[in-house]
Backbone:
């Protein structure tokens, strides 16, 4: 019968041609014409038009149009450094909660210890937290983790703060600049897992300050006022050597 | 569709009992992100209907027998609160809520890019807090906004709307009296940007001309609701990139 509403799509089409302009789009909204453009994540082509599939900010880089989602689940990729929590233990492997849609599998052969068959529980039990790396992800989303590597270990102390996946880059900053500032100011060890879990280890004051700083980075990391806000917060940072 | 012929549903001046025109919708408000514990959520008020939807996932599908190797499954639970109507509803699943859960899941599956999450499950909980006819449509609209809020990839935002027939006249968006005593009800799920229909049910009889007019009303209402949905999502994240 040929009914079509499409009001939003038509209205947004002209805006879509402005290229690098950052704007909020919702699923189904037209971003612009396909012509000559490559389609990145968060978008699909439909009738010569690029359509957003996620709620997020449009981005155009290297002639590729994509949508940076505001919310998204962690989708593991090979090589990711993650903070995982033991969810299940079997005789020869551990199932890990990786803060994603699927559990990760850590076989005893990829653990940092020599593990005898049936002795997995002696090394790690349910609820233990580890720093691991994603070894492999197949097309069925089977995730294999490894703890063989420099720095990969069980985390016996510290606290975990959850951060939305899309805020990770903001927290890390250009060349890890932001997270290094937080480490220095809080006098704490801070490790950012790609899966949205941040491990903070320091004294109580430092940890509390780091939590506050992580929250600030999430809320204002993209704003021009962020630098001033972080500097102001650094004034309240616990002084090194105070115990 | 009670079909009681002696109930007057249209006034002598051609308006409906609540003063609306034939093609006028009840007021709709939508708020996104109302439940902090959910990955995505939304509340829709449509007339006196209040629907809350919460989305969790994608998560590993359990039990494993429900997993699909090539796509995610959408698990919808539609429920009317015991206090949602004037007569208390017995809590728990019933035949009607099972049917609505099923059709809603099928409608959502047609818009969500389920192939992105093989072997996983996306859980959608729809709770009707107040009911006044048209709860399945309010539920679908709420679920669509909640899915978008959760960052689930979709081809479009599905909009639930309904038209029907009272006193041999096609009207948009039936209220309780019109739903109970009218002659037909035509709830549909519309994808506003493409004009596709993701779900359609019909209770009662409509002639082809009446059906066409009802669908015309539905598409008009879908465009209006879609704008409110987009506005709700934008309002939640206004004030810069979050």
Residues:
């Amino acid at each position: 019968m040929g009914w079509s509403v499409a009001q939003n799509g038509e209205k947004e089409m002209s805006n879509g041609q402005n290229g690098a302009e950052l704007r909020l789009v919702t699923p189904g909204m037209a971003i612009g014409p396909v012509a000559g453009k490559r389609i990145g994540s968060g978008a699909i082509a439909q009738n010569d038009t690029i359509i957003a599939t996620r709620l997020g900010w449009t981005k155009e880089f290297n002639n590729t149009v994509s949508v940076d989602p505001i919310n998204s689940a962690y989708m593991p990729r090979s090589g990711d450094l993650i903070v995982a929590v033991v969810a299940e233990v079997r005789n020869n492997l551990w199932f890990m909660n990786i803060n994603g849609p699927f559990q990760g599998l850590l076989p005893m052969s990829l653990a940092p210890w020599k593990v005898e068959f049936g002795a997995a529980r002696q090394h790690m039990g349910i609820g233990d937290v580890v720093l691991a790396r994603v070894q492999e992800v197949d097309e069925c989303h089977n995730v294999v983790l490894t703890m063989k590597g420099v720095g990969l270990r069980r985390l016996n102390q510290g606290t975990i703060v959850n951060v939305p996946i899309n805020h990770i880059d903001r927290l890390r900053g250009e060349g890890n600049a932001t997270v290094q500032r937080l480490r220095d100011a809080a006098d704490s060890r801070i490790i950012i897992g790609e899966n949205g879990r941040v491990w903070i280890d320091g004294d109580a004051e430092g940890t509390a300050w780091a939590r506050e700083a992580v929250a600030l980075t999430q809320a204002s990391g993209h704003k021009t006022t962020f630098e001033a806000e972080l500097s102001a917060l650094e004034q309240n940072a616990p002084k090194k050597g105070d115990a | 569709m009670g079909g009681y012929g002696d109930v007057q549903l249209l006034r002598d001046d051609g308006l409906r009992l609540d003063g609306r025109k034939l093609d006028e919708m009840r007021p709709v408000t939508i708020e996104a992100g109302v439940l902090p514990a959910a990955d995505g959520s939304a509340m829709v008020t449509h007339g006196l209907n209040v629907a809350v939807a919460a989305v969790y996932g994608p998560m590993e599908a359990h039990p494993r027998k429900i997993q699909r190797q090539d796509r995610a499954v959408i698990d919808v639970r539609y429920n009317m609160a015991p206090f949602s109507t004037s007569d208390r509803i017995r809590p728990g699943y019933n035949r009607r809520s099972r049917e609505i859960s099923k059709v809603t899941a099928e409608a959502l599956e047609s818009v969500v890019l389920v192939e992105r999450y093989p072997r996983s499950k996306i859980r959608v909980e729809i709770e009707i807090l107040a009911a006044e006819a048209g709860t399945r449509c309010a539920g679908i609209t709420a679920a669509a906004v909640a899915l978008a809020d959760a960052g689930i990839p979709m081809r479009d935002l599905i909009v639930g709307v309904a038209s029907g027939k009272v006193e041999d006249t096609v009207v948009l968006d039936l209220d309780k009296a019109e739903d109970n005593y009218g002659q037909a009800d035509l709830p549909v799920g519309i994808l506003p940007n493409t004009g596709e229909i993701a779900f359609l049910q019909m209770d009662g009889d409509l002639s082809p001309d009446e059906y066409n007019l009802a669908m015309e009303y539905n598409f008009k209402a879908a465009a209006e609701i879609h704008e409110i949905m987009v506005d709700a999502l934008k309002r939640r994240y206004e004030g810069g990139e979050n």
Notes: The radius of gyration of chain B is 18 Å.
